[in-house]
Amino acid sequence: MDDLDAQESRKSASTGTGGHGAPAQAGVIGIGLAAVLTIALAQGSWQWFAAYIGVTLLAVIFAAYRLPPWTPGLRSAYTQNLVAYSLVVGLCVAVALAPMLQRSAWLLPMPRTRSDCREMGKYESLRAEAALASLAGRDGAALAFAQDSQSHDATADCLASTTTRWLPLYGLGAAMLAGLGTWSFGRTRVRGEADLATRTPRRTG
Question: How far is CA 171 from CA 37, 56, 82, 90, 108, in A?
Answer without folding.
Answer: 15, 16, 15, 4, 13
